[in-house]
Amino acid sequence: MDPLARFVDDEQVFHHTLWRRTPAVLHPRTPPMETLTVAELDGILDAGLLTTPYATLVREDGPVPEERYCSPRVVQGGIDNRHVDAGAVRRLIGEEGAVLLLRYVDQWHAGVRELADGLAECFQRQVEAFFLFTPPGTRGRPAHRVDADVLAVQIHGSERWRVYPGPLDGNWRPERVDGDPGDPLLDVVLRQGEVLYVPRGFAYVAEATGGSASARLSFTVREAGSAHLYAVLEALLLDGDGLPARPNDDAALSGAASDLIAHCHRTLAGLTPEELVRLARGAMRRERHAVGGTLSALPA
User: Which CATH number covers residue 11?
Assistant: First the structure.
């Protein structure tokens, strides 16, 4: 099955009508509900290996201080203050309405990583995953813009989403939207098994509804920006020039400058805008170094 089919009900409609154009609620036939459940989240918390910044608690007005939910441990003779305390997390969620945010789940959860890698192949872009557990009647963040297209899978409970228009030009920043964001383009309650698509840069706010906690797994499809184009172009221009590090005299320095200009001309002459964008997107994607087999299959 095409990985995108786990998130959308009609791939052709998604690509030609929704992508980068408009937010929408999607109803895939087989949403990835089983990938990371609330029950598994409880087990992960109780295992005691979660650390910040992979797991943090946040409120609408900002992050919860780490010392309120992290316990110090002695590890190899030193104090490590990053380990998340499951009891403290549950207490802050239940008593103070804190939201549990798991960052970059694709880096440490095999099932989520498989989904993220599949989406990355579909879009040819970097894909990351985040999990939010939100107590009822609570929002984790105010209205804000994200520098990514978002596919949010409602795993448990429900959330009311309000999605507002995208930025007016390319000079926007991924940050909170202060003041009145205006009328939403989409005001909808996302229910278990549904997926919400939010185009890159569109502002949104989500709040758990219905009297129960909400859990969602969000995949962010990252796009290259001008900084990535600059970085890739710089790498291309610096690659293979073979210039001496410290020319000995004026003639040698001028010769090096001439060689560098010629190298830049050759590089730029064969470079198209489409190829530069492709290279920038590729540079953003993490390399996976997978080795086949299992530890149990190794000789005893």
Answer: 2.60.120.650
